[in-house]
């Protein structure tokens, strides 16, 4: 109950007319950028970071919250109307949603996605309100050794469990750790990997890295393979749900939420597993199995809710431990660090106002999303018709503006280009982006904690497993790495080395 | 845009023999990783180890650099054994077409031009040229309109940052006019 009253204070704080304006602006910008083909939520947040640069932390958070949910909702609009999921979590939405759109039920697909996202986002945020402070109060006692272990866990799990090629995942992770090395060594003050320049004596700006890899890398990759044939876009009217649609949607919404939130909250999250599970669950439970694959509303409602609930769930480790588990959360962490705020157990104790305002803003952003986006859906759909040369020129323009505006140094635009080319190469060679971004952000944190732990123990490495929690976490890592291949072997040979989930997913697409 | 997992392009349409060839370009990537790893280790040897710091500034670069070297060897071996990467798909990406590196080179050229002249021309001019140049590289034929749109975007963003956020972007040759 205490949490709820604190949340109430946060709401009061966030609900001033001025702040509501920022929330609305964030939702509009986030949806705008999210709807644009080629831009996912992580890229939307990264591109829009500079816009919040001159704001107070509170207002900036409120805008972030709007951008975060707006970007996600925009992504689902694109999948439904274009059948081209911008990210893996939208694959399931695209399957059924686009079929619905082709049958003339685009309005219902968009409506069930929007309302489902709202419900899941709201329940998910309330879940964060309940769990994050509890986790944080436990986490205050977590020592440096356990922190190192948890960081290793989230890096290893994200790299090894998600994605189809472990080798490429680890290449991406270590490239990220390498990028994270650039800059002054914290203890001795010596520049590492600075190539004798002064600009590289500071750590690389995560905004430049993220915008380079996401926005510029994507633009260059699209340039190399631009689809010349125009995509078919389904026209859309005012979204609404009939009585039958409501009846068939509410169950999937709630089940999707229940599946999505825990997957977001554990530090090996990501939204793709719960959306996939939610799709399978709805397919099993539905009374209209013949509609699945042909545009079943449950197949949109469930995965969309799971996606948003998982997005809310990622705020638990982000706020309570300072651990981002998705690319979007990683960019949000960078944004918070830009304000001199380090999320983690201390933040809840030191600046509770800030945390509660952020949580309240998430609720407000989520509500505004529903209020603003349902009526505006036909307008957003029109964005899909922007000619591609101008669209990507615009993305390039804003990416450059974002990189340049942080320090007003053309060198940052040069770095942007370098990371853009890296992003291009990663897409060409099938290297996943998420491990790299997490490596850039978590690498330095891990090094700091590792050195802290070993300084206390005077260099004895046994300090690393001196805490029970650390031992448990290492066991979990080993189980997660060894378990799946072992299980596969026990169940007998089944296809040459591809994880089952990937196979099934491929069959579905 | 991250971690998109869609079917590999070699399921379906495309002819099998062309797809079965090993992807030699991966050896280039492996070489770059090898160099990056080796340089990281070399760079770390130049650091001084402080006292009362049992880990020191070298350990992390040593680990990261040497693991990268190992990974580069593994990648080279995998590439030689015929392992193919799964290129990322996307909304506007058509992987059935051959790669169009000319367009990429044009875009990179436009960016290099922007980097070289940003300080001199200022954001309002550079940004407009960047937009028009990028649109032209990507195949737009409405050059005049692109220049106009780019100018509106860059001037508006200049004023937006100056008035809205209090950040004066470089005015360049338009100093005193903006």
TrEMBL record, chain A:
A Pfam family that the UniProt record links to this protein: TctA
Residues of the DUF112 domain: 20-438
Domain of life: Bacteria
The entry's keywords: Membrane, Transmembrane, Transmembrane helix
Transmembrane feature ranges: 20-49, 109-132, 144-162, 167-184, 204-224, 318-342, 354-377, 389-407, 413-442, 463-483
Protein name in the entry: Tripartite tricarboxylate transporter permease
Species assigned in the record: Nocardioides anomalus
TrEMBL record, chain B:
Pfam families: TctB
Coiled-coil regions listed in the entry: none
InterPro entries to which the protein is assigned, alphabetical: DUF1468 (IPR009936)
Keywords: Membrane, Transmembrane, Transmembrane helix
Transmembrane segments: 27-47, 59-80, 107-136, 156-174
Sequence ranges assigned to domain DUF1468 in this UniProt record: 30-169
Keyword Transmembrane: yes
Organism domain of life: Bacteria
Region Disordered, annotated ranges: 1-21
Keyword Cell membrane on entry: no
Bias type Low complexity, positions: 1-15
Protein name: Tripartite tricarboxylate transporter TctB family protein
Organism: Nocardioides anomalus
Organismal lineage: Bacteria, Bacillati, Actinomycetota, Actinomycetes, Propionibacteriales
